[in-house]
C-alpha cells in the first residue's frame, strides 16, 4: 500500500514580528483558515517565529486549541552549560515546539554553521523529540560547478550521519539562489533534487522511514506557484520565507489543496 505523507506548509518568519505581532498574526491565520474551512489533515501548517515569541504563541495555541503547529528557527547543539546566548532543545520541548529548523542557508553562511554543527544540532533536536527540518541546498556557483543534486545530497548525508532507526525528520530542499530572490526553482528542478534526497533517506534511514519522510521545497514560494511544486511526487510541502509574513498570501499557500484541485 502506498504511504501517504501529509503535506506541511511551514512559515519561517526569520527576524520579523515581535511577540505581540506574533499573537495577532497566528490568531488571524487561524480565523482565516477556519473561515475558509481549511482541512488541516490535508495540509498541516506550522509557523517559526523568533525565540522571544514562542511562549506567547504556545499560550495562544494551547488556550484556543488552534490547529497550528510551531517551532524554532534554530537550537543549540548543547543541552545546557556555559553557552551564552544559546537555546537548548530541552527548553523548546518544554514550550511544546513540534519542530525546529536546522541548517538554514542563512545560518550556514552568516553564522558559519558547518555540516558537522548541523549534524550535531539534528541529534540535539532528536534527543528532545523535536522534529528537525533539515535545510539543504546549493548556491548558484555550486549549481554551475556540480549540478543540482551533489551539494544538497552531501549536506543531507552529513546531517544524518549518526542518526539511526526510525528518526522523525523533515527535509527542506532550498536552493540558495532561489531564497528571497523571486526566482523559484521550477517544479521539475525541485522534483529532481527531492528524488535524489529521498534516495539518501532510503540509504540512511531505510525504505519505510524514507517513504514517510516529508521533503519540502523552499525558495520564493508564493500562492501563484505552490500548485506546480505540490503536483510533484517527491515534494511534500513548502518552507516559505517572505510570503509567510503576508497573512492572505500565506493562508492561500496553505489552502493549496482547495485551489489546485489535487
Ligand atoms: C527561506 O528563507 O527559507 C525562504 C524559502 O525564503 P523565501 O520564501 O523568501 O525565498
UniProtKB/TrEMBL annotation:
It comes from Orlajensenia flava. SUPFAM superfamilies: Triosephosphate isomerase (TIM). Substrate binds at residues 12-14, 180, 220, 241-242. InterPro entries: Aldolase_TIM, TIM_sf, TrioseP_Isoase_bac/euk, Triosephosphate_isomerase, Triosephosphate_isomerase_AS. This is Triosephosphate isomerase. CDD domains: TIM. The active site is at residues 104, 174. NCBIfam families: tim. Keywords: Cytoplasm, Gluconeogenesis, Glycolysis, Isomerase. Its EC number is 5.3.1.1.
